[in-house]
Write a structure and sequence with these properties.
- With about 270 residues, this protein is α/β, with parallel strands linked by helices.
- It is built from 8 helices and 11 strands.
- The chain has a 6-stranded parallel beta sheet, with helices on both faces. The chain has a 5-stranded antiparallel beta sheet with strand order 3-2-1-5-4.
Length: about 270
């Protein structure tokens, strides 16, 4: 599937529709955007009748040619639009061309939370496959270089590290960490490195470990022997995932873990 930049380069022009402001309830937040091309669209401002009408407005602006000026429109989300949000959305419409690709990449870049995933097993692969499109930048780490697939989502970077826990020191500040390596010994060493970094820098706000309550009880005892305190160990999330999802299939665990990361991520401006 082409990126929006490829489509803009191919078709030459588009209209950028941006949520300028919202009064009350709206389907998307200010800053949400979509690009409307002569053929096709990219991004979304919320769907439904609002997006349908905005797309029509954008294509009219597109057909007006290079001299068309940017404009703004007010949309009341009530019975007239068939949307019951009840708020008012102000949309900005701006014609852009292939020459604007570089500047648009900067303008439209969404803030992403760094995530470190240790382990390329079944659950690790399921997480990496599903993280595309989410507001994360994933560093996927394993001590076995051959386990990484040839193709990964654009927001995934694969990293070989042996010993694997050495990579903890180089994680981006603010990283959310998931630990699920192929061995409990590696898991323990990675977790100890994360706890040590938290003690020294306080810059890993979330550390999650895959496993059962029995595994965590064993790990907790061993980490206590290494000198980590009760409050430090209480900050570890094990088992990972949101409460209430009991399935153990890799895809289920992956979705649950990603939902937990979305809860743990800092609020987006």
């Amino acid at each position: 599937m082409n990126e929006w930049s490829d489509t803009l380069a191919q078709q030459g022009q588009a209209v950028l529709v941006t949520v300028a402001s919202v009064e009350g309830s709206g389907p998307r937040e200010p800053g949400a955007w979509m690009l409307v091309f002569e053929r096709g669209e990219a991004g979304t401002i919320g769907g439904g009748r609002l997006e349908f009408d905005a797309t029509t407005e954008a294509r009219e602006l597109l057909s007006a040619g290079p001299g068309a000026r940017p404009l703004q429109r007010r949309y009341a989300l009530g019975p007239s639009l068939g949307q019951c949000c009840g708020g008012v959305v102000h949309l900005a419409f701006e014609r852009v061309t292939a020459n604007d690709v570089a500047s648009l990449k900067v303008r439209l870049a969404e803030p992403a939370t760094p995530v470190a995933l240790f382990g390329g097993g079944h659950v690790g692969r399921a997480i990496a496959q599903r993280i595309g499109g989410l507001p994360f930048e994933l560093t996927w780490i394993d001590s076995r270089d051959e386990i990484f697939p040839e193709q990964v989502p654009a927001n995934v970077r694969c990293e070989y590290s042996d010993p694997v826990q050495r990579a903890v020191a180089d994680l981006a500040p603010g990283s959310l960490v998931l630990i699920m390596s192929f061995s409990h010994a590696e898991d323990l060493d990675i977790l100890a490195a994360c706890l040590q970094r938290r003690r020294e820098r306080q810059d890993l706000p979330f550390v999650g470990l895959i496993g059962s309550k029995t595994k965590w009880a064993t790990f907790r005892h061993r980490l206590e022997q290494r000198g980590f305190t009760g409050p430090e160990l209480d900050a570890v999330h094990c088992p990972i995932g949101v409460p209430g999802l009991a399935g153990k299939q890799p895809a289920v665990v992956a979705v649950s873990a990603l939902a937990q990361l979305l809860q743990a991520a800092p609020p987006r401006a």
